[in-house]
Amino acid sequence: MQYKYQIDFKINNSINPGTMTNFLKKDQLISNWYEIDAKNAVVGRLATVISKIIRGKNKTTFTPHMDDGDFVVVKNIEHIKFTGKKFHDKKYYRHTGHPGGIKETTPEKLAEKKPGEALKLAVKRMLPGGVLGKKQLTKLKIYSGNEHPHTAQNPKIIELNKLNTKNIVRS
């Protein structure tokens, strides 16, 4: 196929400038709302679904350096599950910044103090580090119980068991 125009490779630095990727501008971004019921959901599998939506990887307009993601509301967080013995044996480490200040905790202890913190940590570690990841993490809303204050946004419901049967723990 012959092109009808001359390409100046020194100026353009592209073989075919007509097929360059179009990036979205800030005023073109549209955020949707999604609702996920975390009852009997596996933490890691739920976190992967959430992180993809928050980053915007489920959209055709995904741009790695921009916050093009959607909001995710997670309800019934107190019924979330770990597979195997991870609920008792897994360790989360953090450091206070002082010498000898390493602290460790388990998901069991975290669930007593902050029920949604294990899921939040899993999602946080799947997002990019730095300012962009912190901004994207604010789009995650976690609630205990069935009620949440975001019903006015009309969130679309995502059913995890229909995405993959392994997403839900069978008792």
The appropriate CATH architecture is Alpha-Beta Complex
Mean pLDDT: 89
Number of helical segments with 4 or more residues: 7
Percentage of residues in strands: 5-15%
- Report strand order across the widest sheet: 5-2-1-6
Helix content: 25-40%
Name of the top-level CATH class:
Alpha Beta
| Helix-strand string | HEHEHEEHHHEEH
- Whole-angstrom Rg: 21 Å
> Structural class, judged by helices and strands?
alpha/beta
Shape: globular
Number of domains: 1
CATH topology: Ribosomal Protein L13p, Chain: A
CA(first)-CA(last) distance: 60 Å
Tell me about the largest β-sheet: 4 strands, parallel
Brief overview:
The chain is 27% helix and 14% strand. By secondary structure, it is α/β, with parallel strands linked by helices. The mean pLDDT is 89.
Structure in words:
The chain has 7 helices and 6 strands; from the N terminus they run H-E-H-E-H-E-E-H-H-H-E-E-H. It is an alpha/beta fold. It has a single domain (32-167), classed as Ribosomal Protein L13p, Chain: A, CATH 3.90.1180.10. The chain has a 4-stranded parallel beta sheet with strand order 5-2-1-6, covered by helices on one side. Strands 3-4 form a two-stranded antiparallel sheet. Strand 1 (33-37), helix 2 (43-55) and strand 2 (71-75) form a beta-alpha-beta unit. The protein is globular and about 55 Å long. The model has no long low-confidence stretch (mean pLDDT 89).
